[in-house]
Amino acid sequence: MSTPASDAPRSPLPPATATTAAESLASGDDRRTQGLTIGVDVGGTKVAAGVVDGAGTVLHAVRRPTPGHSAPEVADTIAAVVAELTADYEVWAVGIGAAGWIDAERSRVVFAPNLAWRDEPLRDEVAARVGLPVVVENDANAMAWAEYRFGAGRGRRDLVCLTVGTGIGGGLILGGELYRGAFGIGAEAGHMRVVPGGHPCGCGNEGCWEQYASGRALVRLARQIAADDPAAATAMLEASGGDVDGLTGPDVTEAARKGDPAAIRCLMEVGHWLGEGMASLAALLDPDRYVIGGGVSDAGDLLLAPARERFLEAVPGRGHRPVAEVVIAELGSQAGLVGAADLARI
Ligand SMILES: [Zn+2]
């Protein structure tokens, strides 16, 4: 693993009373808070990057479209946003949060269902272009870390963070540490199987949790209602401009906020499945808080109320045990880059 401590040039030891900025940064505790790092959040459609200080504050952010299906082009785009930011800010490391499975060395993207990466040495490709220490993290892990350090999970040592977007991104903080798993690809909670023989999933299995508790599930339910009973889907179709195939998750949320019963029902079903999976995770992990982020969480209690209800109905030992709180994430769309920037400090 490449860290600033090992890569930074070391000068001969000065007198015991003197300290330099470089030495300060070489000490673990100070690295956690001092100086600036860049976080880059690479998703299927956009690359968002920002200069972040040790308190998690984004000083300056830029965004570009993710280029097509070429791995070198993605590395070039990351290098370009880093160059844009380092023109105005002195930074000492870069953290990349990527929508893919990352190896335990925080170096290679093993597999990315929605991007061009297949065993891609992303850390070294970017480091060669930018001349700074680079680490690569899974994007959902980066978001979980940001919520733990600076957001809705502050002060909690055992935390499950679920990013409910197109699928479900999972991130675990256990005992105050980010849990990555033996091969770096742990916490892929969206691929826990909840319905044997259920809907097929991009991971190769059927019945994965993210096929039932995600934006994709929300859209599938809404389109089904629109196909079966267009009158019942009037409000959702109004939000989508009348196009059944163009119905999106935000269209459903917008209609639900206006009180549309069919849209509310779709969110209730997705929330129900969310709570179902959270109950299974409680059996395994016993977290003290679930933090729910991602685009679908914009629906707020329209999603969380049925999720909490089902969670409390399904949690093992219900009525005889303390149960975790379920809260909405606080850092919004910047969580990924803030978390990646902070993880570059570790
Ligand atoms: Zn799956």
Automatic annotation (TrEMBL):
A GO cellular component annotation in the UniProt record: cytoplasm
Positions of region (Disordered): 1-32
GO biological process, one term: glycolytic process
A Pfam family reported for this protein in Swiss-Prot or TrEMBL: ROK
Low complexity bias: start-end ranges: 16-27
Entries under InterPro entries matching the protein: ATPase_NBD, ROK, ROK_cs, ROK_glcA
SUPFAM superfamilies: Actin-like ATPase domain
Domain of life assignment: Bacteria
UniProt keyword ATP-binding present: yes
EC class (word): transferase
A GO term for molecular function: ATP binding
KW Nucleotide-binding (keyword) present: yes
Keywords, comma-separated and alphabetical: ATP-binding, Kinase, Nucleotide-binding, Transferase
EC number: 2.7.1.2
NCBIfam families from the UniProt entry: ROK_glcA_fam
Family from the record: Belongs to the ROK (NagC/XylR) family.
Protein name, as recorded: Glucokinase
Source species of the chain: Frankia canadensis
